[in-house]
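Example 221.
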Amino acid sequence: MKDHIILAPSLLAANFAEVGAQLAEIKAGGAEYLHLDVMDGFFVPNISFGVPVIKSLRKATDLFFDTHLMIERPERYIAQFVSAGSDLITFHYEATEDPAAVLRQIRDAGVKAAISVKPNTPVEVLRDLLPLCDMVLVMTVEPGFGGQKFMADMMPKVEKLARWREELGLSYDIEVDGGVGVENARLCVESGANVLVAGSSVLGKPSVREAAQAVLSAAKQ
Ligand code: DX5
Ligand code: ZN
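Predicted structure in complex with D-xylitol-5-phosphate:
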């Protein structure tokens, strides 16, 4: 288990009319990452935002930009998401023919590289790719929408990733995404996750600073 727990509020749940102030508030509440959910309407049945929004937000905050690409053939857009200001890029195993090449492409572009699997994809498919990963993201909902119910039955994937990290002598982070909040943050950490995405449970709350503090303290309790 990694000791340092990182909170990554998801922009998807923000109030876009007040987003600059909300980003300052989540930072004051202890958030270190901003999770940026990019959806193309093909890989997932929803469309969110893309490069220009990230570029604009980059001027408003120094939070670490954790970009989650839910797009088909992410290799087409890596350079643009890097130049927009991403610090880390996650793409989906299911979205490309050559995931190893995409992981290398992201690192070669100068940012951290991560890969994710949907709930129905076994985590074993990632095993040979782990040396190329700075982080692995385990989806705890079907990707596409915020506000869904946390799938506790994904925790064995997190446990396996933590075990393999020891066995292989690697140091990747393990992130969970979907339905994470005060009720299950500790379970995620005990299973082996150290980066927690929180949409509705942080940026969806009236006081985002207090909500960030509450999820972090539940995770560490
Ligand atoms: C789902 C996204 C999530 C989502 C999380 O496709 O990847 O990052 O914004 O939102 P909550 O925490 O509300 O499930
Ligand atoms: Zn996400």
